[in-house]
Amino acid sequence: METAMALSSTEREDFRLRFEKRLEKVRAKTADVFAFKEVDQPPFIVNSALYTAFGLDPETFPDGYYDDPQVMTDLQERNYYEQLKEIDDDFVPYLMPWFGTAVTASALGCQVDFPPKLDPTVNPRHYPVQAAEDVKRLQVADPEKDGLMPRVLQFMRSMRANSFLPIGITDFQGPLTTANQLMGYDKLIYLMQDYPAVMHDLMEKVTETLIRWVKKQKEVIGEPLTDCFSDQQVYVGGHVGVWFSDDDAVLMSPGTYKEFVVPYNSRILKAFGGGCLHYCGNATHQAENLLATEGLRAINNYTLFDLRGFRALKSKLEGRVALFACDFTPLEYADYFHELLDGLSLKGLVINSQYTPRVALVRGGKYVHVQRPLMPGKRNVRDFLCNYFQSRKEQR
Predict the structure, then answer these.
(1) Which of 37, 143, 288, 395 shows its CA 20 to 30 Å from the CA of 101?
(2) CA-CA distance, 144 to 216, in Å (whole number)?
């Protein structure tokens, strides 16, 4: 199949001007989020310009995306440019060197597969850490030599040389998620219970690898340690220095999470002047642990339609941690947003609705494959949110 058409010089100049205008607008709105300022309309995104294969029509996903940095750059630039022209929301584009969720795990011994037209994934039949003895042999990874890290750095260098857009760090799975990728859930839980000292050793090595990895990426893309441009397409600017995924927080008891996760998450966040955690689902039972996590400034939560859990979390973290309500746009998006937002404080809030042509959210927290046109769908969601916030303002 043909690769994405590279932007012409005229389009690129128009893109640059649109980008600068959008950044100026969203920078001010984001400052209000992290200041927990009362606003009439929080930042919101209705975006179909993804960097992943998930959610996209396979026929539109180019060959060579993971092999040629120019192919990846051209596709992202083209999609982001079209998005800025179509929708006046609060999406600020940046380039993402995307190689799935297992880049760090690959550097520590995981096998990553590249299925055709899909996102890279960990091979579940190959776990490099099978027992406590394997943890002792595990070495902190070298970003210039191990796993997929060198390829990510290669793509970053190419992107920096060939695009005006900022570049973000690649997908960043936190210490708990990376440890799970190395062992699998069952063995990890047994390790916590039977060999807690070894579990701490594993988390130490993973955490040190993650810190070194982010520092190297920031060196390559020219980003300060305490600045992070965006978290999974939500602009955060200089308000956080790093983001990472902590999806397994939803599965852990508060006691286990406090002992084996909070200290290591805190170490990473403090190393970069504070940051943001992502997880999918409901981890409201970790609210006290989240408040005790040093340097935590925001949570990026894909709600999976658990809106009661999101609202409960916001009430517990109000005024202390910003919250990003994210998801793939539900089929019943009007009901979804009413359940999410009615009566909810808009302080410290961002809404990120990923409008994809092939994936949508339904009640029960499930993603379903659908066929829906991007236009007028995206514009309808954007207009609904604008009208909703205007209505709230008028009712005050």
Answers:
(1) 288
(2) 9
